[in-house]
Write a sequence for this structure.
């Protein structure tokens, strides 16, 4: 499939902004919520993951995310590649407030990936954290971000499922539905007060 048929004729920042806006709307993402971003800049360029990282691609993707973040004020977390065990770039104040385990490394293109390395250098006071349970995820190039989403993940099908040459996968998390056949999940559907015995 050629780049034009995947929507790559639009600037990358615009593609990211459009798709991320769809995720924010579908998931009801609010200020302070956490979104994990997994990005293979190699895949965006039409190459195999981990082979052709590119800082200019990372900068364009970061810009698209920044545009939506300026409107919604969610917290962005940037997943590193497998060579750093898929740790995440986070602002230190957030990591400390959430009680996440901080690990020692600085992501670079060959260990961490171009996107995480770029995001780390844009942060005011960055650190890497071992794991999180985020409210939503935005995965460019099938980097496998699911380990950092809290249950229950709900897939969102983007109107254009490509960023550049990379497949886009998105999801948001919802609270678990508990109970059995008598459980009610919305107050407006709840019957009057009665016995459970």
């Amino acid at each position: 499939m050629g780049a034009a048929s995947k929507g790559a004729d639009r600037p990358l920042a615009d593609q990211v902004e459009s798709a991320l806006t769809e995720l924010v709307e579908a998931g009801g993402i609010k200020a302070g919520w956490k979104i994990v971003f997994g990005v293979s800049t190699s895949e965006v360029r039409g190459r195999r993951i981990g082979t052709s990282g590119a800082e200019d691609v990372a900068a364009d993707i970061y810009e698209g995310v920044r545009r939506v973040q300026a409107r919604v004020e969610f917290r962005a977390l940037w997943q590193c590649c497998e060579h750093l065990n898929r740790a995440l770039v986070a602002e230190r104040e957030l990591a400390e407030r959430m009680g996440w385990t901080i690990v020692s490394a600085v992501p670079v293109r060959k260990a961490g990936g171009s996107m995480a390395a770029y995001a780390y250098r844009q942060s005011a006071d960055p650190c890497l954290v071992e794991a999180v349970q985020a409210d939503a995820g935005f995965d460019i190039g099938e980097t496998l971000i699911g380990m950092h989403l809290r249950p229950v993940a709900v897939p969102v099908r983007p109107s254009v499922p490509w960023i550049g040459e990379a497949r886009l996968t998105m999801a948001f998390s919802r609270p678990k539905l508990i109970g059995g056949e008598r459980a009610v999940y919305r107050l407006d559907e709840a019957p009057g007060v009665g016995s459970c015995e």
